[in-house]
UniProtKB/TrEMBL annotation:
Positions of the ABC transporter domain: 6-248
CDD domains attached to this UniProt entry: ABC_KpsT_Wzt, Wzt_C-like
Annotated SUPFAM superfamilies: P-loop containing nucleoside triphosphate hydrolases
Protein name: ABC transporter ATP-binding protein
Pfam family, one: Wzt_C
Record keyword Transport present: yes
A GO MF term: ABC-type transporter activity
Similarity comment text for this entry: Belongs to the ABC transporter superfamily.
Transmembrane feature ranges: none
Keywords: ATP-binding, Nucleotide-binding, Transport
Assigned GO CC terms: membrane
Superkingdom field: Bacteria
InterPro entries attached to this UniProt entry: AAA+_ATPase, ABC_transporter-like_ATP-bd, ABC_transpr_TagH-like, Bact_Polysacc_Export_ATP-bd, P-loop_NTPase, Wzt_C
C-alpha cells in the first residue's frame, strides 16, 4: 500500500481573540487593563485524516468551522499547536490568487513576476507565456496593465499562472468562487489531468455541487471538529441536513405567533385562526423539512359567531415571491362545517411526499365564507419553512419522473429521476 500524500494526525490550533478594540497606542495606554483581555478560539480541534496520492479531496462546513485554518496549516502558514502534519512532495497553495502581481505591470510582465514567486525560472516561463495567455483568454490584452482588467480577467490570469507550479499537492481555498462557468470547467479539466498524473488536490469550498461532481472524498468540519469523512454525495447530504437544523434553530428564536398579530392580517374574525403548525411524519413541529418527506400544515381555529360552512385555504410561495400552490377545501370538495359559536377545531393539509426542492418558503393561511367573498381571517405569510434537498438538485420541484434506457430493443428502467 502506497504512502499517503498527506497525513494529518490529531492536529489542533487555537487563537487568542482580543475582546477589546485596541487599535491605537492611545487606547492601549488609557485602557491598560481591558487591552489585555482575550478569549480562546479553538479553530481546529484534534483533526486526523489521510489523503492518498492522486486523490481529489474536498473540505466543507459552515462559516467559522476551521476549513481555511486547516488549509493554512497544510500550507505551513500556521504551525499546529499539537499534532503532526506530513506532506509528501512539493506543495502549491492557492489560497489567494494574484499574490505577487503588480497592477502597474502588464499581463505578460506579471506572468514572469508571478512565476518567479512560484520558483520558476524566466527561461521556463518564456516557453509558456503564449499558452498561459491563451488559457486565460487574454491574448488580446497581453500588454495592458493589470490594473485596467476586470476582476474576472485578473482572476483568470492569476489562476493560470498559479497552476504552472510543478507541485505534487495542490491546496485551494475557494479559488473558483469567481470566474464564469466555462472557465471553471476548463480549470477542472486541468485538475482531472493532474489526477491522471498522480497529483493530489485538496479543495476548500461551499459549492456542494462542485464537490459532488469532482471530489473523490469530502471532509465535513463543524466548530473545529471533523464530523464526517466519506464519499462526496454522502457528506454533502449530511452538510445540507446540518444547515437545515441550524436554520430551524434560528427560526425558533423568532416566535412564529408574532405573525398572528402582524399588519398583514385582515378579516372580521367570525371564525378566527388561533394557530398554524407545521408537522413532520411523527406529528412533531418543525420549520425544516426534507424533499420527499412528509409535511402537514395544521390550522387551529375558533368559531365566534353563527356562520355557515366556510373555506380554509393555504398559499405556498418561495421566498423570492414565486407562487407555488394555493390549495383550499372548496376545490378539494371538502365542506367545513362551523358547528356553532364556541366551537374549536383543526383543519389539516397533509403532503405525504414533499416535492419542493431546497429553498425557503412562506405560507399564507386563510378562512373565508363558502363563496370566497368574505374574509373571516386571512394571515399573509403566517409562517416560513425551509426545505432541505439532500441531493442538491436544481430547480423548484421534484417532478417524480423516471429514467429509462433502451439498447438493441432491450429496455432498462432506472427508477425515480431523483
Amino acid at each position: 500500500m502506497s504512502e499517503p500524500a498527506v497525513r494529518v494526525t490529531n492536529v489542533s490550533k487555537h487563537f487568542r481573540v482580543p475582546l477589546d478594540r485596541s487599535s491605537t497606542l492611545k487606547y492601549r495606554v488609557t485602557h491598560l487593563r481591558s487591552a489585555s483581555r482575550y478569549r480562546d478560539l479553538l479553530a481546529v480541534n484534534d483533526v486526523s485524516f489521510n489523503v492518498g496520492a492522486g486523490e481529489f479531496l474536498g473540505i466543507t462546513g459552515p462559516n467559522g468551522c476551521g476549513k481555511s485554518t486547516l488549509l493554512k496549516i497544510l500550507s505551513r502558514i500556521y504551525s499546529p499547536d499539537s499534532g503532526r502534519v506530513r506532506l509528501a512532495g512539493r506543495v502549491a497553495p492557492f489560497l489567494e490568487l494574484g499574490v505577487g502581481f503588480n497592477p502597474e505591470l502588464s499581463a505578460r510582465e506579471n506572468i514572469f513576476l508571478g512565476g518567479a514567486v512560484l520558483g520558476m525560472t524566466r527561461k521556463e516561463l518564456a516557453t509558456r507565456v503564449d499558452s498561459i495567455l491563451e488559457f486565460a483568454e487574454l491574448e488580446e490584452f497581453a500588454d495592458q496593465k493589470v490594473k485596467n482588467f476586470s476582476s474576472g480577467m485578473a482572476v483568470r490570469l492569476a489562476f493560470t499562472v498559479a497552476i504552472q507550479a510543478d507541485a505534487d499537492v495542490l491546496l485551494m481555498d475557494e479559488v473558483l468562487a469567481v470566474g464564469d462557468a466555462r472557465f471553471q470547467e476548463k480549470c477542472f479539466d486541468v485538475f482531472s489531468d493532474y489526477k491522471r498524473h498522480g497529483r493530489t488536490i485538496i479543495l476548500v469550498s461551499h459549492d456542494l455541487s462542485a464537490l459532488n461532481l469532482y471530489c473523490d472524498r469530502v471532509l465535513l468540519l463543524q466548530k473545529g471538529h471533523l464530523v464526517a469523512d466519506g464519499p462526496a454525495a454522502d457528506v454533502t447530504a449530511q452538510y445540507r441536513r446540518i444547515v437545515g437544523a441550524m436554520s430551524e434553530a434560528d427560526d425558533h428564536e423568532h416566535d412564529p405567533d408574532d405573525a398572528m398579530v402582524a399588519e398583514n392580517r385582515w378579516g372580521t374574525r367570525e371564525v378566527e385562526i388561533t394557530a398554524v403548525r407545521l408537522l413532520d411524519d411523527n406529528g412533531n413541529q418543525h420549520t425544516s423539512f426534507a424533499t420527499g418527506g412528509g409535511l402537514t400544515v395544521a390550522i387551529d381555529y375558533a368559531v365566534h359567531s353563527d356562520v355557515d360552512d366556510f373555506v380554509v385555504g393555504l398559499a405556498f410561495k418561495r421566498s423570492d415571491g414565486i407562487n407555488i400552490s394555493g390549495p383550499n377545501t372548496r376545490t378539494a370538495d371538502s365542506h367545513v362545517r362551523a358547528s356553532g359559536p364556541g366551537t374549536r377545531g383543526t383543519i389539516s393539509y397533509a403532503i405525504p411526499h414533499l416535492g419542493l426542492l431546497g429553498a425557503k418558503y412562506d405560507i399564507t393561511a386563510a378562512i373565508y365564507d363558502g363563496f370566497l367573498n368574505h374574509a373571516y381571517d386571512h394571515i399573509e405569510d403566517v409562517m416560513s419553512f425551509r426545505v432541505v434537498d439532500e441531493k442538491g438538485r436544481l430547480g423548484m420541484v421534484d417532478l417524480d419522473g423516471t429514467w429509462e434506457q433502451t439498447v438493441d430493443g432491450q429496455s432498462r428502467a432506472y427508477g425515480r429521476a431523483g
